[in-house]
Amino acid sequence: MAFKIIASQCTQCGACEFECPSGAIELKGENYVIDPKKCTECEGAFETQQCASVCPVPKTCVPA
Ligand code: SF4
Ligand code: SF4
């Protein structure tokens, strides 16, 4: 399981990249993307998905 970023809603603020405990978020070209192979859904690290909790745009980091 992994989270994904809805590109059309993302403002490219970059906040999520630094909060991800798995290093799964990267700027690729013009979009921040979550590598589904690296995303752990924050299991074992945090109670809530950090990308979704820091993202200023509601429902932009969502379950894939
Ligand atoms: S759910 Fe957690 S591990 Fe997955 S991309 Fe978001 S912050 Fe990273
Ligand atoms: S925190 Fe949200 S708006 Fe900011 S780069 Fe990540 S997904 Fe995009």
TrEMBL record:
**What name does this protein carry?**
Ferredoxin-like protein in nif region
The cofactors named for this UniProt entry are: [4Fe-4S] cluster
Q: At the top level of its lineage, which domain of life is listed?
A: Bacteria
This entry's Gene Ontology molecular function terms read:
4 iron, 4 sulfur cluster binding; metal ion binding
The 4Fe-4S ferredoxin-type domain extends over: 1-30
Q: Which SUPFAM superfamilies does the record cross-reference, listed alphabetically? A: 4Fe-4S ferredoxins
Q: Keywords assigned by UniProt? A: 4Fe-4S, Electron transport, Iron, Iron-sulfur, Metal-binding, Nitrogen fixation, Plasmid, Transport
User: Which Gene3D superfamilies does UniProt cross-reference here?
Assistant: 3.30.70.20
InterPro entries reported in the protein's UniProt record: 4Fe4S_Fe-S-bd, 4Fe4S_Fe_S_CS
Coiled-coil positions: none
